[in-house]
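Quick review question:
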């Protein structure tokens, strides 16, 4: 087999890149280890910045997102029993975010892929990248016990944090930057009306909470828990009690409880691999970087990488400029480090890691940043997302 671009991983990064390339007439094959149902069952991101919204539109897959997505003009932050609002219209030049689940985007992209007939192979095993630093890279894999080989021009490693792509870059050529936090987020999805029209991030004496949503009838909540907690030990009743005890009194009475559709614990981590390219291999999304979920940046960063790689590949194929690939890693990393810093800062401002002094600083920071125009702009401008740079 032969193609122009092999894409490893059919998460949102791989599917979005694949659709954009296909629409531009650039042949690509997607290889995915799991089944479509497994990929769709992972409840993850919910907040989309303008950047990814416009990429999904450019890919021609935005019809349902534009109809069902909920535009949000602000976000709320609770501390000391009080709730303050960050108004994007006032503090981020009228920008907004859209609440629409990652699983919905993924489902829309899967459907588009199927409709256009471009190749995508699920349940593949033993994906290996060969000679990415040569002019003739090769990807091999197994499916149903059969060996396959694909010769290609470029490889997009969209295979998440645990994929094979990053490990293909020799250890001596990459640097990994990592910070782990002593807590995880316990997430809870329920078909109950959200507690508020906007997201509420908050900290109380009992810990962090986030009230989010997927629609007017489906809510998504999180509380932070210590890393030794097991999801099996969290009955629905126990979760609702814990969340309720963390909420400010002014909203507690509005909480509508119900059975869980999904519950999971996600560890918090900051991670970056530099550089994000090796020869003809490019790392995209979670394959190259992880943020703690506090700033809602993970998927939005992934789509930033997709944007840059797509525009670079357009230069390569449509303008015959293969040297354009050299800029990929540096372009991505500038935006990524800003979002990493923002996510790390929001995480520290909203989580009590057990240090008395730091706990007092959290309240002081929250008071300053949500109580002054300057502070509100700092949060708002980064929360709605930094713009993409132009690719030259
Ligand atoms: P994914 O989604 O992990 O997809 C990678 C795909 O690659 C496949 N794969 C392989 N395929 C072939 N061969 C191999 N060897 C392979 N190894 C792996 C996997 O099966 C999978 O299908 O990475 P991608 O596409 O880069 O997308 C990244 C996002 O999923 C991630 O950044 C976000 O979900 C992070 N995130 C959030 N991001 C936001 O922008 N806004 C949010 O509100 C937000 N909330 C969240 C989040 C992540 C969370 N968790 C659980 C980590 C909330 C949570 C709780
Ligand atoms: C979500 O709705 O799942 C969500 C929203 C905001 C975050 C993280 C997760 O910061």
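Suggested answer, residue by residue:
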């Amino acid at each position: 087999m032969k193609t122009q671009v092999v894409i490893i991983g059919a998460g949102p990064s791989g599917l979005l890149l694949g659709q954009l390339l296909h629409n531009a007439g650039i042949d690509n094959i997607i290889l995915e280890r799991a089944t479509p149902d497994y990929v769709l069952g992972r409840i993850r991101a919910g907040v989309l910045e303008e950047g990814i919204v416009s990429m999904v539109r450019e890919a021609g897959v935005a019809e349902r997102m534009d109809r069902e997505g909920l535009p949000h003009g602000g976000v709320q932050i609770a501390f000391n029993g009080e709730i303050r609002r960050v108004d994007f219209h006032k503090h981020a030049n009228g920008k907004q975010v859209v609440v629409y689940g990652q699983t919905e985007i993924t489902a829309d992209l899967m459907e588009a892929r199927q409709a256009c007939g471009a190749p995508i192979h699920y349940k593949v095993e033993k994906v290996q990248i060969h000679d990415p630093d040569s002019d003739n890279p090769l990807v091999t894999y197994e499916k149903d016990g059969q060996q396959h080989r694909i010769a290609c021009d470029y490889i997009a490693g969209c295979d998440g944090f645990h994929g094979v792509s990053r490990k293909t870059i020799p250890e001596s050529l990459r640097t990994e930057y990592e910070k782990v936090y002593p807590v995880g987020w316990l997430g809870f999805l329920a078909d109950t009306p959200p507690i508020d029209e906007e997201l509420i991030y908050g900290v109380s004496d009992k810990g962090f909470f986030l009230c989010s949503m997927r629609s007017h009838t489906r809510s998504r909540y999180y509380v932070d828990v210590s890393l030794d907690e097991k999801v099996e030990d969290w009955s629905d009743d126990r979760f609702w009690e814990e969340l309720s005890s963390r909420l400010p009194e002014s909203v507690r009475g509005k909480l509508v409880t119900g059975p869980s559709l999904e519950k999971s614990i996600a560890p918090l981590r900051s991670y970056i691999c530099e550089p994000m390219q090796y020869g003809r291999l490019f790392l995209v999304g979670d394959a190259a970087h992880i943020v703690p979920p506090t700033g809602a940046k993970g998927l939005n960063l992934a789509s930033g990488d997709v944007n840059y790689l797509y525009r670079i590949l357009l230069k390569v194929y449509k303008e015959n400029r293969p040297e354009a690939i050299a800029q990929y890693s540096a372009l991505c990393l500038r935006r990524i480090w800003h979002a990493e810093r923002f996510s790390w800062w929001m995480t520290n401002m909203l989580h009590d890691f057990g240090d008395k002094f730091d706990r007092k600083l959290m309240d002081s920071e929250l008071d300053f940043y949500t109580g002054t125009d300057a502070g509100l702009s700092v949060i708002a401008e980064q929360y709605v997302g930094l713009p993409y740079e132009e690719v030259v």
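Why it works: Residues 46-47, 199, 210, 212, 220, 293-294, 296 surround P-hydroxybenzoic acid (ligand 2) (CB under 6 Å). Residues 328-350 form the longest helix (23 residues).
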